[in-house]
Amino acid sequence: IAMKKFNVAGASFRTEKIEFILEKYYTDRSEQDNDSYFVSNQPQKYTKYPIFRTNKVQLIAEPENKHDENAIKVLIYSVHLGYVPRNQTEEIHEELKNENEYIAEIKEDIKNQYSIEVSISKK
After folding, report:
1. Cα–Cα distance measured from residue 6 to residue 112, given in angstroms and rounded to the nearest whole number
2. What is the pLDDT of residues 48-87, one digit of tens each?
3. What is the DSSP string of 94-106?
4. CA–CA gap between residue 115 and residue 106 (Å, rounded)
5. Regarding beta strands 51-54 and 36-39, do their DSSP bridges make them parallel or antiparallel, or are they unpaired?
6. Measured between alpha carbons, how far is 123 from 102 in angstroms, rounded to an integer?
7. Count of helices and strands (H, E) across the chain
8. Torsion of CA 107, 109, 113, 117, to 10 degrees
9. pLDDT, mean of residues 97-122
10. Distance (Å, rounded) from C-alpha 101 to C-alpha 43?
């Protein structure tokens, strides 16, 4: 059961990086491990990629961030794709102390813009 969820802030500025990840794991299915997969029950009419779900997610506190010393960056496959939204950093900092599993879902909308939702659950 997912304890907490958040939408990754700043993902819209990292479209190229998101597409790099999707491209890499979409074109060569053999490279896909069982921890990452595409959810294929999605209409393909408007979107290039199905929903991509993976547990290759890292949340890393960034106390040296000059805009916000509480910032937590979100990495998927070690690629920085955005941040925990500022209004949720306090509760997510608490979660960083626990043994959690992070699952990210990358979705594409009709305008071909990506959103990333991360859910946190106890291991």
Report:
1. 20
2. 777 888 999 999 999 999 999 999 999 999 999 999 999 9
3. HHHTS-EEEEEEE
4. 6
5. antiparallel
6. 9
7. 2, 8
8. -30
9. 89
10. 28
Query: Which amino acid makes up residue 66?
Result: K
Token representation of residue 99 = 């043994």
Q: What are phi and psi of 117, to 5 degrees?
A: -110, 130
Read off the pLDDT of residues 9-47 as tens digits, 9 standing for 90 and up: 999 999 999 999 988 876 545 444 545 555 555 555 556
In single-letter form, the type of residue at position 56 comes to: K
- Give the single-character DSSP code of 9: B
Query: Which pair of tokens denotes residue 66?
Result: 């000059």
Sequence length of the chain is 123
- Do residues 36 and 56 lie in contact, with contact meaning Cβ atoms separated by under 8 Å? yes
Residue of 19, 93, 13 lying closest to 59 (CA atoms): 93
Q: What is the pTM of this model?
A: 0.83
